[in-house]
Amino acid sequence: MDDYRELKESIDQIELVDAHAHNIVALDSSFPFIGTFSEATGDALSFAPHSLSFKRNLREVAQLYGTQVSLEAIEEHRQTSGLHSFTSKCFQEARISALLIDDGLKLDKKHDIAWHKDFVPFVGRVLRIETLAELILDEESPPDASSWNLDSFTKAFVERLNSLVPEVVALKTIAAYRSGLDIDTHVSEQVAEKGLAEVLQAGKPVRIGNKGLIDYILTRSLEVAERCDFPLQIHTGFGDRDLDLRLANPLHLRTLLEDKRFAKCRIVLLHASYPFSKEASFLSSVYPQVYLDFGLAVPKLSVHGMVSSVKELLDLASTKKVMFSTDGYASPETYYLGAKKAREVIFLVLREACASGDLSLKEAIDAAKDIFSRNAIGFYKLDIGTDSSSRISLKSEIKEPDVQEDSSSFVRIIWVDTSGQQRCRAVQAQRFNKSVKKNGVGLTRAAMGMPSCTDAPAEETKLTGVGEIRLVPDLSTKRTIPWTKQESMVLADMLVKPGEAWEYCPRETLRRVTKVLKDEFDLVMNAGFENEFYLLKNVVRDGKEEYVPFDFGPYSSTSSFDAASPIFHEIVPALESLNIVVEQFHAEAGKGQFEVSLGYTVASDAADNLVYTREVIRSVARKHGLLATFVPKYDLCDIGSGSHVHLSLWKNGENVFPASDKSSAHGMSSIGEEFVAGVLFHLSSILAVIAPLPNSYDRLQPNTWSGAFHCWGKENREAAIRTASPPGAPDGLVTNFEIKSFDGTANPHFGLAVIMAAGIDGLRRHLQLPEPIDINPADVAATLKRLPESLSEAVDALDKDQVLHELLGQKLLVAIKGVRKAEVEYYSKNPEASKQLIHRY
């Protein structure tokens, strides 16, 4: 065992990507808890407690909860603990960092996908195509109000599928359950039409079992998957008694796999295809588009069965094409068991591969990382990383339940406008659940044209009060508000109509640029923010109210921290309850200034986290009678506040920013250097987005830790861009870079999007960095170019930057520049008005 301790420890430390699972149900669901341990139903369930896997899994759960080994004792523990409590425990022990849920499984009182976000940082939706088709036939009417025919059904199905594209990460078929895997991708319309008529004639609720119609629906879905670059999950092998196992052999898929139209459509065979694991292994070895997933086989089989099945998958298949999932469903214990047994089984299989000479120890560790995480990240193109030391914090505390649906509970729908102001609309929870979560709320188009000085659109934005868009909640971001348990908050996307994003939407802008980086270079950008802010208290002097610093201690002062400690004792747990990782916090150099540094994560989540972090800090401070402000230069005679951002590039779950060895001149890979060079090249233009106020440039001065000169340096905190080698990084190798000029008034989604766009240009043109500045740039100011010294200069630079216009969108850049010009004009005429910014940021 000692010879393989490193392998065991490596496997135990991996944050898992669970690539196939189902919804958890409420405690009072009619789903029997005994179903956690067996696929059997009805009378067959009475024999389940005598199976090997049942006895083993029952012991595992009893040990987890510290109860007697019996169903009754475990069920009593569940009832007394509460769903959120034992779900938190199961997911904490499972160490699952990402979860893909097929919500098409019919379960009584199942929780929606967003609910699971309380326990897993990333939750994605897998769309079951048969369920979608049945839903359309059950709940919708044909467009012409007549009966359904194949044309009207096809139009409705494809339109609905296309509208759901932004919401899902993969499609799934259960054809194996309905008519078998011998799919005819050239099924005629006449056969499909006849099948549709047969299904409709059977009445409602609709259940599609006709082979011709199933084949037709799957073929149309493959066309969408091919066009949208979606993977397809296919149920293969065993399941419950509805399934004819003879028709679930993946070898039946040959016709589909040979169809050249779908040769590039990524397909994953679920459940290890058990008992056809050898057949699945063969298909994966000869068809480049075929991948394998061993969920359900682990943990539902005996130990011998689990090990044998996974071994058979690896007999021919590449370790780059085998993926983990729990196939968790109904109860969180299924997730825990799937994760626990998968770690044990993979260790046993890889240990034997090492002992037999198939793999070296290093290769086995690498294979484990692929199987448990990296393969799924690449296959499903997930915008997440897998470094367990940074981004993922599985919270052990009990989560608060969702707000109750009564007249006193509200949901805040939050967006961030072009000027960086955070705004919200609030609705009652009942109305939210009834209609708003699907349809959103209306918002004037003028909302994205408003500067900080007025709640009316700036003229040059070309946005007016004419026309309306929809604020549609992204349910994956819905959270219970930590400081007022009667409310929830959710971030919104801006849509013109269902399925069509508005070109001014900040979150969609970041997604769009992220997709370019992923599609062209197979890269994901991660980001982590340092939030600097002032805590101010209200005092009355000479009969006038004014705000003054809460404290006067110096940088990292223990007494300042002691004074603010009661506030941080609320801020940090509140952030952690939102699944936001807090790395450190301390007093900063300004009077009453503090900093909260967040762990890094994929850019879109980092931007979302920053929005919620600002909400938490301001709200908790308000509870304590203080005002927290992120204004860049609250006091012209004191140090400014920034939102320094740290950035890195990842590929298949690995940080590709560091050089592969110490031979690199700057400690960066060529990819890393080209990306940073692009950011440096466009930095003057970028400032118009990440330093959006005239007040921002009062902060961007030499010798103020803000980066006033157009240069970069290694661990140089006066350079505009600093490359970093944090503790734990190999000596001389760079793991990330920091941009100092990003401040707390910037829209985080626009800010990361413009930085990413600049980096993409660097990669496209293979730009190279100049020599780093290894001294204070102010000491060699005569040899360096200053970054823009005013917002006007930054806007001029952006106006001339055609690359950023092309990547971010012409109309959006017009709006951004229009807002900035309005800021310049207003504050130049009303300089004292800057003092009121503390109430907006």
TrEMBL record:
It comes from Noccaea caerulescens (Alpine penny-cress). It comes from the Eukaryota. GO terms for molecular function: glutamine synthetase activity; hydrolase activity. GO terms for biological process: glutamine biosynthetic process. Residues 506-841 form the GS catalytic domain. The lineage of its organism: Eukaryota, Viridiplantae, Streptophyta, Embryophyta, Tracheophyta. SUPFAM superfamilies: Glutamine synthetase, N-terminal domain, Glutamine synthetase/guanido kinase, Metallo-dependent hydrolases. Belongs to the glutamine synthetase family. InterPro entries: Amidohydro-rel, Gln_synt_N_sf, Gln_synth/guanido_kin_cat_dom, Gln_synth_cat_dom, Metal_Hydrolase. This is Protein fluG. Pfam families: Amidohydro_2 (PF04909), Gln-synt_C (PF00120).
